[in-house]
Amino acid sequence: MIGETQTRMATEAAEAPDRIALQAASLAEPLADLAAKWSASPPRAIVTCARGSSDHAALYGKYALEIATGLPVASLGPSVVSVHETPLRLDGMLYITVSQSGQSPDLLRCAEAARAGGALVVAIVNDSASPLAGAADIVLDMQAGPEHAVAATKSFLCTLTTIARLIAAITDSPATDAAVDRLPEQLRSGSKDPWPSEILDRYVDAGRAFVIGRGPGLGVAAELALKAKEVAGLHAEAFSAAEVQHGPKAAIGPDSPVILLGTEDAAKASVEEAARTVGALGAPTFGSLVAVPGIVDLPTVRTGHPLTQPIVQAGAFYGFIEKLSRRRGLDPDNPPSLRKVTKTL
Amino acid sequence: MIGETQTRMATEAAEAPDRIALQAASLAEPLADLAAKWSASPPRAIVTCARGSSDHAALYGKYALEIATGLPVASLGPSVVSVHETPLRLDGMLYITVSQSGQSPDLLRCAEAARAGGALVVAIVNDSASPLAGAADIVLDMQAGPEHAVAATKSFLCTLTTIARLIAAITDSPATDAAVDRLPEQLRSGSKDPWPSEILDRYVDAGRAFVIGRGPGLGVAAELALKAKEVAGLHAEAFSAAEVQHGPKAAIGPDSPVILLGTEDAAKASVEEAARTVGALGAPTFGSLVAVPGIVDLPTVRTGHPLTQPIVQAGAFYGFIEKLSRRRGLDPDNPPSLRKVTKTL
Fold first, then answer.
1. Is residue B294 in a domain?
2. What angle do CA A103, A107, A111 make, to 5 degrees?
3. Do the beta carbons of residue A270 and residue B288 sit within 8 Å?
4. Which residues of B touch A281 (CB under 8 A)?
């Protein structure tokens, strides 16, 4: 980036491809362990437990796991244990907890309660020496390396690929593993063809916005909306393409730009229908893999797999939102409210 | 309402207490049936499936059921069946589908897939002759009566009380049944002491806003945020009090008023902590059951039970948002975007 100091956020986001490439070797053994346990005693249901960005990764995993296995995936409310102290009854279930730091006391208590309640506990962490890892039966180290920016980027992408590899392991899907193996190069390729400057122009003064996805992409949309809040101070909200018709559209208009994360799978038509709805409301509308007239196209590398496609979309969004933050006069590495409040508490 | 024609929305919201009172008798038999089946063969997990407002009611139920039973409650993504055609594996699970009309084809397909997958299917509907009711093992008719306003009000409250009675039945809790029996009078009492006009003044020109809840109240907060969009064209977003610290606060400021739904249970302190965070960011802050200096108090009838408290808060909010819609020059019965788009599709 000529004439500018690269932000920590941009630097760390750019590290994601190398970090993802490290996972194939390091996750092989714990995932083989998980696959063996899964086969020997197939779970009755799956439970996830996480907070913030990690919970958005878990939402991606929820759709992906339900589609891949037909088992229901429950996102346990941590307060059920941490506030209400309810003993959990998770006999014969797979429990997946996700935390970059592995330090959160409420997630630790939940994992202990899950294990006491009969679940097989898997921890996806970025620190295999963390307390949460210590409470797990199987530890999946996401290998993101140290992350210093306030806004998580590479750790989010590494969490998604860890989940994709977990699904490859339990469903014995070499195609899914191969898709994750292709991803680092696809992410690098995507970063060479950033989103058009027109989108920056339309977002620079926006007060509110929407991000729309569906299926696994909904979890990514939720995370990107949070990122817009964190680094650009922009009130962006995520919705499922299926829910746009159920009321949210009443708040969509010319002052609320919309980004749609299209898919290349069976959900493609529903995202494109949502794009037409949004466009008809007069919202500036931008679409990745959304072939609808009048929608501004966001260049997107096609990955050839529904579990890696949203990851490439997230990577491209990071490039956009980091630039938008600076265009809005902010510092992506120092989200003002987040810092200020931390000091006042 | 002197000098004004009462809107359909206001009329229907005011019918909720009488409708809720009807449920005790009509739900007794199907709930006894459910309780007997629950005892004879305790479910391994619980799955919900719904869309829009009904899905927000299911979110209320998710927290309430997890706290009451210790079982995980999964919100099945309807697209898993309707788009991806995945066979469900729900052997020994309780499946609760919620739909006022009972007409949605995707929910019907999901219920059929759930039954084929081994679940006991309960349908909470407002029309016991609907296709969704026909696909269920047990039908819980919410008794809301005909609802004509675009914005659901009484049907949402009747869904919540049906869920509360379901929980009373499966946990054999006369205290919960008694709490629902007290609710109609508490709702009527609450409508006589509306929220202060100050809140209308602060919201009349707002472009965006937040509603914060926790536990069962988070499902209600999500619904109230949707109602703000639908009838007042206000981009309101819901958050868990626990998530405010995880990034959303970066988008909270003087231009984004916040309503917090406090509780009288173990979560009370966490909502009050969120109120202090939000207030320190300069947001106009309004709290129901939130005893924090500097927060504008929203008069709230104390119901004496954590499952009915959010229902009284929702009832009070309906009175507020209906007035706000008119103050913003809109017609609560004719949300402009919702109508317009329906015509253009």
1. yes
2. 115
3. no
4. 337, 340-341
Q: Does B116 touch chain A (CB under 8 A)?
A: no
Give the residue numbers spanning the domain of B298.
193-327
Q: Do A75 and B75 touch (CB under 8 A)?
A: yes
B233 and A250: CB-CB below 8 Å? Answer: yes
- The answer to whether residue B332 is domain-embedded is no
DSSP helix/strand/coil, B305: coil
Give the number of other Cβ atoms within 10 Å of residue A345's Cβ. 10
Hey, are the CB atoms on B66 and A86 less than 8 Å from each other? yes
Q: Which of B230, B256, B341 sits opposite A235 (nearest CB)?
A: B256
Domain membership of residue A109 (yes or no) is: yes
Output the pLDDT for position B57: 98
CATH for A81: 3.40.50.10490
Q: Based on the fold, state whether residues B237 and B167 are members of the same structural domain.
A: no
- B21, pLDDT greater than 70: yes
Q: Look-up: residue for tokens 């809040």?
A: A229
Q: How far apart are the CA of B242 and the nearest CA of chain A, in angstroms? A: 9
What pLDDT does A343 receive?
31
Q: Are residues A180 and A197 in the same domain?
A: no
Is B220 a residue whose pLDDT tops 70?
Answer: yes
B293, part of any domain: yes
Write the residue in B45, B69, B249 that is nearest to A337 by C-beta: B249
What percent of chain B is predicted at pLDDT more than 90? 92
pLDDT of residue A248: 83
Same domain? For B27 and B176 the reply is: yes
Q: Are B248 and A234 a contacting pair at CB < 8 A?
A: no
CB contact under 8 A, A77 and B215: yes
Backbone φ and ψ of A82, nearest 5°: -75, -30
Q: What is the mean pLDDT of chain B?
A: 94
- How far does B276 lie from chain A, in Å, by closest CA? 9
Chain B positions in Cβ-Cβ contact with residue A59 (cut-off 8 Å): none
Angle at B156 between CA B243 and CA B272, to 5 degrees: 30
Residues 4-63 of A with CB under 8 A from B: 44-45, 47, 51-53, 62-63
Q: Which of A148, A167, A184 is the last residue of a domain?
A: A184
Spans of chain A below 50 pLDDT: 1-3, 339-345
The DSSP bridge pattern shows strands A46-50 and A94-99 to be parallel
State residue B337's pLDDT score. 65
Quick one: B171 and B209 in the same domain?
no
B66 vs A80, A243, A336: nearest CB: A80
DSSP assignment of A242-289: TTGGGTGGGG-STTS-EEEE--SSTTHHHHHHHHHHHHHTT--EEEES
Separation in Å, CA of B89 to nearest CA in chain A: 5
Alpha-carbon distances, residue A245 vs A179, A298, B182, B304 (angstroms): 33, 23, 36, 37
**Which residue in A93, A249, A336 is closest to B338 by CB distance?**
A249
Partners of residue A256 in chain B, C-beta under 8 Å: 235
Q: Are residues B158 and B213 in the same domain?
A: no
Do B174 and B252 lie in a common domain? no
Closest CA to B243 of B278, B208, B209: B278
Q: What is the pLDDT of residues A207-262, one digit of tens each?
A: 999 999 999 999 999 999 999 999 999 999 999 999 987 778 889 999 999 999 99
Count of domains forming chain B: 2
Nearest-Cα residue of chain B relative to residue A267: B83
Which of B71, B86, B115 to mutate to probe the A interface, most A CBs <10 Å? B71
Q: Are residues B257 and B298 in the same domain?
A: yes
Query: Among B66, B251, B256, whose Cβ lies nearest the Cβ of A77?
Result: B66
User: Do residue A123 and residue A226 come from a single domain?
Assistant: no
Of B52, B100, B57, nearest to B78 by C-alpha is B52
